[in-house]
Amino acid sequence: MREKLLIIDDEQMILELTSMVLSSKGFDVSVVDNAPDSYELIEREQPALVLLDYMMPKVNGLDALKEIQSRFPETYVIMFTGKGSEEVAVELMKAGAADYILKPFSNAKLVERIENVLHIRAIELRNRKLVEEQERLCDEIERWNQELEERVKDKTAELERAHQEILLTEKLVSLGHLSAGMAHEIRNPLNSISLFAQVIRTGLDGDQEMQSYADKIVNEVERIDAILVKLLSTSKRSPFKLRTIHVDAVIEESLQPFLEQMRVQGVVLQKKLSSQTPSILADADELGQIFSNLFSNALFEMKQGGTLSISMEHNDKDILVRVIDTGGGIPEEHLNKIFDPFFTTKDSGTGFGLSVVLRIVKTYAGRINVKSEPGQGTTFQIWLPLV
Ligand SMILES: Nc1ncnc2c1ncn2[C@@H]1O[C@H](COP(=O)(O)OP(=O)(O)OP(=O)(O)O)[C@@H](O)[C@H]1O
Ligand SMILES: [Mg+2]
């Protein structure tokens, strides 16, 4: 390929002679007699090299050099300078000229310098391309790494969640066996205790103090029995009847027993329920336990007042119910324990409430998640599938 050269010089003689010499050496030469006219030509022809005269009327050679350099970084510039202006030459080299040639010059010298600069240019351009390619590859590797890290993080979180769920399910199953066996063993003797206490009570005709003790025994036995029933319900499904039901109606129903407590505690209710939501097949009492437990927990947290928000929305797959309180929130370190049976932070709690919630949500192939800002409140989200 013939390399393209452009000569910029105001002396017609130089233009003619040099172009003749260089053409005969195999270069593809263009000429122009002033710098301002050269830019368009450079843009179009993209010469490898410009031979630029330093001393020209109109435009200063140094300015032209800078202009060409900034606009056409791949075009190299050799400057012509007059003899005795070595200081200028140093300045030109500093400004980025590839080389300089003192006028008058010999043809042999000129060709030699041009070939040298072209050689260096070829190497430098190749280097520049390699560096660019390397930077591009580094960027790409960096992007891949980030993508990979993201994916590993997502997968790990997903696995962690699945693992937690398996652990919890296993826990509930073994608790189910244990509590079923235990309840069976304990409820019979409890029943006897209660019966005998009642017999004793009738025998204590007239002794009111003793009678009240017998009543206490009966009440305490009932309390133990209630705990056993609750324990059973965390792991075992009670008899159920599936019907077509509206979730908003179930929520309304579950709210009723809490209205008085809310009034006393000064809790404001914000409801956004929709009767337009499609119905689902479920046992209303069973589903209601989800909401009763969530409301009970939320109100426990808002003894000094607050807001309980209940909203629902749906798409073509799920119904989403949100229960939001403005209570004390759940500390981060408790978040993965709250669904565990027996986990409670309350003096009188059994820690079964959310286990029951989780079991029922799972029964209906739904999902539940919790978000909480300590000091700000807690949001439970429950998705129930439509089919
Ligand atoms: N809305 C909430 N705000 C703050 N903490 C909550 C909330 N809901 C649950 N928790 C925390 O999760 C724990 C477990 O709740 P869960 O309903 O399972 O049991 P409990 O309420 O302690 O006892 P139980 O429901 O059996 O009476 C609670 O003790 C409490 O620490
Ligand atoms: Mg509870």
Give structural notes.
By secondary structure, the protein is of the alpha/beta class. It has 3 domains: about 5-105, Response regulator (Rossmann fold); about 160-235, Orthogonal Bundle (Helix Hairpins), CATH 1.10.287; about 245-385, Heat Shock Protein 90, CATH 3.30.565. Helix content is about 55%, strand content about 20%. The protein has helices at about 10-25, 40-45, 60-70, 85-95, 105-205, 210-235, 245-255, 260-265, 285-300, 355-365, and strands at about 5-10, 30, 50-55, 75-80, 100-105, 245, 265-270, 280, 305-315, 320-325, 365-375, 375-385. Strand 1, helix 1 and strand 2 form a beta-alpha-beta unit. The longest helix is centred in the middle third of the chain and has 97 residues, at about 105-205. It starts with a strand and ends with a strand. Magnesium ion binds near residues 293, 296, 297 and 353.
Task: Kindly summarize this structure in a few lines.
This protein is an alpha/beta fold and 387 residues long. It has ten helices and twelve strands. The strands form three sheets. Strands 2-1-3-4-5 form a five-stranded parallel beta sheet, with helices on both faces. The chain has a five-stranded mixed beta sheet with strand order 7-9-10-12-11. Strands 6-8 form a two-stranded antiparallel sheet.
Give the helix level as a range of percent. 40-55%
Overall number of domains:
3
Question: Element order, helices and strands?
Answer: EHEHEHEHEHHEHHEEHEEHEE
Intertermini distance: 73 Å
CATH class of the largest domain: Alpha Beta
**Biggest sheet record:** 5 strands, parallel
Report the portion of residues in β strands: 15-25%
**Total number of strands:** 12
CATH topology of the largest domain: Heat Shock Protein 90
Low-confidence stretches: none
CATH architecture of the largest domain: 2-Layer Sandwich
The helix-and-strand class reads alpha/beta
The overall pLDDT, averaged over residues, is: 92
The CATH homologous superfamily of the largest domain is termed: Histidine kinase-like ATPase, C-terminal domain
Give the strand order of the largest sheet, numbering strands 1, 2, ... along the chain: 2-1-3-4-5
Rounded to an integer in angstroms, the radius of gyration calculated over CA atoms is 44 Å
Helix segment tally: 10
- How would the global form be characterised? rod-shaped
Which hetero compounds are present in the coordinates? adenosine-5'-triphosphate, magnesium ion
